[in-house]
C-alpha cells in the first residue's frame, strides 16, 4: 500500500505482497535513479495483509500481523479477501537494510493490526522506535466499519529480547499519521493525524479535527474544521529546505458535506489552531479515504 522514500539516500522502499502468494512477501528497493536494486523475499505464513512499512538507518521494518488471506471471504463474494486470523502469530520484523532475510530478527507483539505508520528510527540503546495507529483487531466481522477504533501508540522493538513494548500516546480515535518527511527513518518530534468517529463509521461523520502531537512534551493540539466537514490526510510542506521540523504548511482536502464540495486547505503548522492561511474551493467531493504524497514540481 505505502512505499516510503528515504530522504538521506533517495531510495524508495516497500514491502510488497500478493493475494495469491501466501508464504512470502518481498522487500523492494528502488534507487534514486529509478532502478530496482533489491528484491528480497521474506518467509511468512497465511498470506498476511501488510499495508505499510517503515525504515530506520539500520532496518526495514515489516509488520506481520493477524489479518491474512481468507478463502472463505473469497467464496463469500467479498472484494477484499482478508480477515482477522487468530491462528496467525503477531510479530514485527527487523530486516537489515544491507543484508538478506537470514539476518531477519522477528519480535513478538500482542495481536493487533496497523494500517499506517508515522515513522520509525533507531534508538541510542540499539532498540527501534516505531509510531503507529494500532487497532486491537480488524476485519473480524463482515461489516465495512471498524471493529474498534485505532489509537496512537509508540512501540519499542528490542532485537535483543525479541519483544515489543507498546506505549499509549493518545487513545482518541485517529488515523493517517504523518510527519515531516525530511525526518523519515530518523528521530522526529511532531506527528499529525486525522480524527476518526468513535463508532468506526466508514463515512467518517463527525470526524472534524486534525491533531498535532508533540512527542517530546506529550501534548496534543487540535484544529477543528467545524460541523459538516470531513477531513482527508494532511501533509507537511516545509517552508524552506532547512526549515524547522514544524516550520511550514499543512495541506489537505476538507469535504463540505452541506454543499457537496471540497476545500483544499493550507494551515500554518506552528499557528495550528488559527484560521487557514488559504483555501481553494473545488466544486466536487474528493473522497477522504484516498491519500498519498505531494511532490514539488521540480
Briefly characterize the structure.
This protein is mainly beta.
Give the key terms.
single chain; 298 residues; mainly beta; 5-stranded antiparallel β-sheet; 4-stranded antiparallel β-sheet; 2% helix
Count the DSSP helices: 1
Alpha-carbon distance between the two ends:
25 Å
User: What is the assembly state of the chains in this entry?
Assistant: single chain
Q: Overall pLDDT, averaged? A: 93
- List segments where confidence is low: pLDDT < 50 over at least 5 consecutive residues: none
Helicity, in percent? Answer: under 10%
- Helix-strand string: EEEEEEEHEEEEEEEEEEEEEEEE
Count of distinct strands: 23
- What structural class do helix, strand and pairing data support? mainly beta
Radius of gyration, taken over Cα atoms and rounded to an integer in Å = 19 Å
**How much β-strand is present in the residues?**
over 45%
The description of the largest β-sheet is: 5 strands, antiparallel
Identify the overall geometry. Answer: globular
Amino acid at each position: 500500500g505505502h512505499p516510503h522514500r528515504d530522504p538521506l539516500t533517495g531510495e524508495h522502499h516497500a514491502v510488497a505482497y500478493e493475494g495469491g502468494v501466501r508464504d512470502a512477501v518481498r522487500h523492494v528497493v528502488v534507487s534514486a535513479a529509478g532502478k530496482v536494486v533489491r528484491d528480497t523475499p521474506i518467509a511468512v505464513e497465511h498470506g498476511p495483509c501488510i499495508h505499510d512499512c517503515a525504515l530506520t538507518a539500520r532496518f526495514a521494518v515489516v509488520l506481520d500481523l493477524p489479518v491474512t488471506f481468507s478463502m472463505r471471504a473469497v467464496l463469500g463474494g467479498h472484494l477484499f479477501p482478508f480477515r482477522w486470523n487468530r491462528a496467525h502469530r503477531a510479530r514485527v520484523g527487523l530486516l537489515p537494510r544491507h543484508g538478506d532475510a537470514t539476518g531477519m530478527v522477528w519480535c513478538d507483539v500482542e495481536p493487533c493490526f496497523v494500517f499506517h505508520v508515522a515513522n520509525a528510527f533507531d534508538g541510542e540503546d540499539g532498540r527501534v522506535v516505531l509510531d503507529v495507529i494500532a487497532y486491537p483487531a480488524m476485519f473480524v466481522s463482515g461489516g465495512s466499519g471498524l471493529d474498534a477504533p485505532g489509537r496512537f501508540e509508540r512501540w519499542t522493538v528490542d532485537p535483543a529480547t525479541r519483544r515489543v513494548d507498546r506505549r499509549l500516546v493518545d487513545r482518541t480515535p485517529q488515523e493517517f499519521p504523518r510527519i515531516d518527511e525530511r525526518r523519515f527513518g530518523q528521530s522526529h518530534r511532531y506527528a499529525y493525524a486525522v480524527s476518526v468517529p468513535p463508532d468506526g463509521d466508514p463515512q467518517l461523520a463527525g470526524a472534524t479535527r486534525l491533531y498535532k502531537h508533540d512527542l517530546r512534551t506529550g501534548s496534543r493540539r487540535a484544529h477543528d474544521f467545524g460541523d459538516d466537514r470531513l477531513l482527508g490526510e494532511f501533509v507537511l510542506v516545509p517552508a524552506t529546505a532547512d526549515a524547522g521540523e514544524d516550520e511550514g504548511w499543512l495541506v489537505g482536502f476538507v469535504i463540505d458535506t452541506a454543499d457537496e464540495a471540497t476545500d483544499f486547505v493550507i494551515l500554518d503548522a506552528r499557528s495550528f489552531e488559527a484560521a487557514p492561511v488559504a483555501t481553494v474551493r473545488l466544486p466536487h467531493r474528493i473522497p477522504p479515504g484516498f491519500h498519498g504524497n505531494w511532490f514539488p514540481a521540480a
